[in-house]
Amino acid sequence: MPRKNVISWSSMINAFAMHGDADSAIALFHRMKEQNIEPNGVTFIGVLYACSHAGLVEEGQKFFSSMINEHGISPQREHYGCMVDLYCRANHLRKAMELIETMPFPPNVIIWGSLMSACQNHGEVELGEFAAKQLLELEPDHDGALVVLSNIYAKEKRWEDVGLIRKLMKHKGISKEKACSKIEVNKEVHVFMMADGYHKQSDEIYKMLDAVVSQLKLVGYTPSTLGILVDLEEEEKKVVLWHSEKLALCYGLIGERKESCIRIVKNLRICEDCHSFMKLVSKLYRIEIVMRDRTWFHHFNGGICSCRDYW
Q1: What secondary structure, in 3-state letters, does the chain show?
Q2: Backbone phi, then psi, for 71, in 5-degree steps?
Q3: Which positions fall inside the DYW domain (predicted)?
Q4: Which residues in 141-168 are b (16+ Cβ under 10 Å) and which e?
Q5: Shared-domain flag, residues 155 and 189
Q6: Average pLDDT along the chain
Q7: Whether residue 54 is found in the same domain as residue 115
Q8: How many Å apart are CA 55 and CA 87, to the nearest integer?
Q9: Model pLDDT, residue 229
Q10: Quick one: which of 102, 97, 100, 159 has its CA closest to 126?
Q11: For residues 48 and 83, is the Cβ–Cβ distance under 8 A?
């Protein structure tokens, strides 16, 4: 470009951050400063977001301080949200809570949601329950908060509390958003739901899934049912693991591929089991898989994901 301004630099920094390339995002930030382009609040959102998704706690703290002390930018709710998310992902939950308590603005749904989800992932029941209830005070019909609260109780095998949450959701007519994955093949978009059989090539897709799982088991893959937070028998849980992104991937593996990359879009966060599955498939089948979930791009290649298993 003949002229590069803060908008073009910030756009690239945010793009690298979203694709899990924190090193490039940070390197670009330093190049931007070397060329005497003054960063703005949006630039720092990208840098802090990159630190958050790469677990760079010390670097994130330094950027947050420099934003205030070196560049005179007053942090907005979005910047505090990035820092809360950074602490949450790194399992510094008490630090996250301390920051929430000292913010100059009241925390919003997104900030409470970050803390709530992190508590679920890290098994912090009491704080997670508190965060979920704070979120529900702001948005009583928030389906995600009710589902996470139910999952927190399920991890503790508090099935009575799980039942109460589900009854409340049923009474209010609130349902969990259904997972959905899309893949484009030969300029046609194909949509998959969990364990569905609606696709005209469903038989082939499930045969491919069985074949892939058999191959992966030879290299140590064991389907994980730890993330299935309902009171089911083990065999029933295995059926639940026919997640939409696995079906989309197996459809992409059928037949001759013209491209060396399979791209999948999912409306919800990818689960731990599917994440491991995608990594192994990328290595075993020598195929790059790019998956966009609710907030993040995952690039699977050679058995490694761009998120470094930190998402």
Answers
A1: CCCCCHHHHHHHHHHHHHCCCHHHHHHHHHHHHHCCCCCCHHHHHHHHHHHHHHCCHHHHHHHHHHHHHCCCCCCCHHHHHHHHHHHHHCCCHHHHHHHHHHCCCCCCHHHHHHHHHHHHHHCCHHHHHHHHHHHHHHCCCCHHHHHHHHHHHHHCCCHHHHHHHHHHHHHHCCCCCCCEEEEEECCEEEEEECCCCCCCCHHHHHHHHHHHHHHHHHCCCCCCCCCCCCCCCHHHHHHHCCCHHHHHHHHHHCCCCCCCEEEEEECCCCCHHHHHHHHHHHHHCCCEEEEECCCCEEEEECCEECCCCCC
A2: -115, -5
A3: 220-311
A4: ebebbbbbbbbbbbbeeeeebbeebbee
A5: no
A6: 89
A7: yes
A8: 8
A9: 46
A10: 97
A11: yes
Number of domains composing the chain: 2
Instruction: Say whether both 14 and 163 belong to one domain.
Output: yes
pLDDT in tens, 81-135: 999 999 999 999 999 999 999 999 999 999 999 999 899 888 898 999 999 999 9
Residue 311 lies in a domain: no
For residues 106 and 26, state if they share a domain: yes
- Rounded to two decimals, what is the model's pTM? 0.82
pLDDT band for position 176 (50/70/90)?
confident
Instruction: Please tell me whether residues 99 and 209 are part of one structural domain.
Output: no
Q: Largest Cα–Cα distance in the chain?
A: 64
Q: Confirm whether 310 is domain-assigned.
A: no
Q: Tell me whether residue 263 is in a domain.
A: yes
Indicate the range of 77-81, 153-157, 193-197 predicted with least confidence: 153-157
- Same domain (yes/no): 160, 186: no
Distance CA 250, CA 228 (A): 22
Provide the CATH number for the domain around residue 135.
1.25.40.10
